[in-house]
Automatic annotation (TrEMBL):
Residues within the DNA-binding region(s): 132-231
Primary localization: cytoplasm
Protein's cellular compartments: Cytoplasm
Protein known as: Two component transcriptional regulator, winged helix family
Amino acid sequence: MINTDAKKHTVLIIDDELQIRRLLRVYLERNGYEVIEAPTGIDGIGEVARCHPDAVLLDLGLPDMDGLAVLKRLREWSQVPVLVVSVRGQDDDKIVALDNGADDYLTKPFSTGELLARLRVAHRHAQPSSPPAVFRARNLEVDLATRTVKVNGQKVKLTATEYSLLNMFVRHAGKVLTHGQVLREIWGPADADKTGYLRVYMAYLREKIELNPAEPELLITEPGVGYRLALQE
């Protein structure tokens, strides 16, 4: 069934096997799709940020990083439909991929007809376009695809926890996040009442991204409730 939409859908293939990419490209283009290729996980993440494809075909066995790691990175900032295509056919592999944000899972080898059907389903269920991969507010710039943080154009080094915290605020920019919401996502349910952790790390983060940490303009305290990342006014 040929894709006859006025706007062609774009599919990104993230797979290190050139022969597989060529085969998929031929079949997808024959059925009306535009195709982008990426041989590594890092290349794939970059292509999603640059080209905003309508769907991603993701192999799990990549040379630079596991496909699940690519999936987790993408889900930090993008809701693009991701169909895992892998030789790993055990139920546990499928469950882990789906739990980490995959929209579907096909085990190699698969029929091209099945692939097209799964892509059509993914397009029907696709969410609205993801926000840009680069967030900017005042003096702050956060590139969610590369995990790069800049203040006044200069790179700022954050710890893993500090970055996870900032990433959460960027994904919910302008919204108030309660202490419990942040603690559960960053530290886990067992630490949901340990607001001292959060106060300490908010202080660390403000020291690194605010022009005047004593009078923050980005990470705003909502007394008795939580915090909010202010949008550019």
